[in-house]
Hints:
The structure holds two protein chains of two kinds.
Chain A: H1 2-47, E1 50-51, E2 59-60, H2 64-70, H3 73-85, H4 88-103, H5 110-122, H6 125-135, H7 142-149, H8 164-189, H9 193-201, H10 206-233, H11 238-243, H12 256-265, H13 270-303
Antiparallel strand pairs in A: 1-2
Chain B: H1 4-38, H2 61-68, H3 71-102, H4 108-118, H5 123-136, H6 144-151, H7 155-165, H8 170-178, H9 183-212, H10 215-220, H11 229-242, H12 246-266, H13 268-281
Helix pairs in contact in B: 1-12, 2-12, 3-6, 3-7, 3-9, 3-11, 7-9, 8-9, 9-13, 11-12
Amino acid sequence: MSATTEQPRRRSRLYRREHLVAASFIALPLIGFLAFAIGPFLYSIYASFTNWNMLTAPTWIGLANYVRAFSDPYFIQSLGNTFFYMIGIPIGLVVSLALALAMNRRMPGRAFFRSIYYVPVVSSLAAVSILWQWAYNGDFGLVNQVLALVGIDGPNWLADKATVKPALIIMAVWKGLGYSMLLYLAALQSVPRSLYEAAELDGASSFRRFFHITLPMVQPVTFFLVVTSIIAGSQIFTEINIMTPTGGPEFSSASIVWYIWRQAFSSLSMGYASAMAVLLGVLVFLITAFQFWINARNSHDGVE
Amino acid sequence: MATIAQKRYRTGNIIVAVALLIGGIVMVAPLLWMLSTSLKTQEGVFALPPEWIPPDPQWSNYLRVWTAGPLLAGIKNSLIVSLTVTIVGSITSTLAAFAFAKLRMPGKNGIFLFMLAGLMIPFPTLMIPQFVMFANVGWVDTLLPLIVPGVFGNVMMIFFLRQYLTSVPDSLLEAAKIDGAGYLRIFASIVLPLIRPAIAAQFILWFMAVWNDYLAPLIYLNTPEKQTLQVVIANFNANYAIQTDYPLIMAASVIALVPVFVIFVVFQRQIIESVALTGTKG
């Protein structure tokens, strides 16, 4: 009798202790999250409706900053440039999947190649940007000297508005290849061999095996890479600021984050910059949500 | 006695190896060229045709570079920021991951999902209020705005360690609890040894991310002696490009790359394994 009433009370005291311990372990990250992410996020939204230069208190101006953004040719152009850079994402995915397939073969030297292709990934973006700025030098840069070997007279890449964006894309693909290759390689290695063997017995060509086994099996990695690359790509800043410190010829390389940064910390238009930053956040959210929706729909179709 | 299929596979291997080799050269050529430029004279940079191996390597560039700008201060500042953030932050993150994965607490999954969703907010959306916040407490032009947020932990790291911890059987922890071990003791003597490889991998990845960060240090640090290494080398680039002193710029960049390369070479296996894990768990 006493044992049955004792048990729950004892347990609830133990639980309470456990709850407290858990809460104390979680407390710091949660406080940090509220103080350095949620708080600033809410303040950004508020600031986006104000005129604010940091020297005086913000004054409420309603939607004026948003109206200004959509009639600001620099905002539109920097947004367009940012999307243009994302052309590099599919290129990088195709090349890195090809690399992963190559490295998934039974052959010597795989580990060596894997490391070689991974070196740019660990390199600091600032140092890599400095290096590529020099490599894109019109007269003495590495890129044009290599092109000269095959008789091509290369442009002054970063000073020409037709080539500055492709130049930045090439560099981004070069830097990111090793990372996506590694993820693809891990996915390929987890594909059961029996799938391929069964397909081979059925007489499926290597072409068919690739499209009906390999691609669907690595699809989760492709999804992960597309989502994270778009989130990262929408925030491209370092290479723009180092390689084209003025936003490129006729503003042709400026990215959205670069423009926000300029408006906030050079022109002190904190309110306007906040509005553009909020628009960026909303855009990233919508694109990500859209991708998750597409992904869910596709995997549903697969079941049917 | 190789079969036709085996022969074909081997020929395929040779073609693939040649393609990988050419690709590999493309991958490392820019880095080798940076090294080569850093050893040239200021005039040698403009020699045509270019010299891959400078006839008279200017090792003195690597001495000159230390007095040409606050490179040493940059390294020191970067070390202070990266080490403080990753060491303290890893402890906070690991404890939180332990609580999220193994301890009972009402609402903890909701809190976790909430924090995970927060990862989607881009840093640029937060940077202006963060800057104002730190400006109000007088922390601009100090390393504190770079250190303090990181010390509170890293949601990505919590996420991966929590995933990793789900493979640790609950019975192990229950047994220790029955033996009367406190939570910190359970954590230190059972959980920690089990997930040490995962912590190490996350620690290395985080260290490299903080070491390579550019935007946040650029916003907060104005005095050259207070800047982190990445901002210092970017300033080298801006200042010495006008004087076309490319060897000096490249020497500074090489120095900035060396620490991460060393870490990569030493911890290659852990880095590659944990990155591969990112995709499968993500």
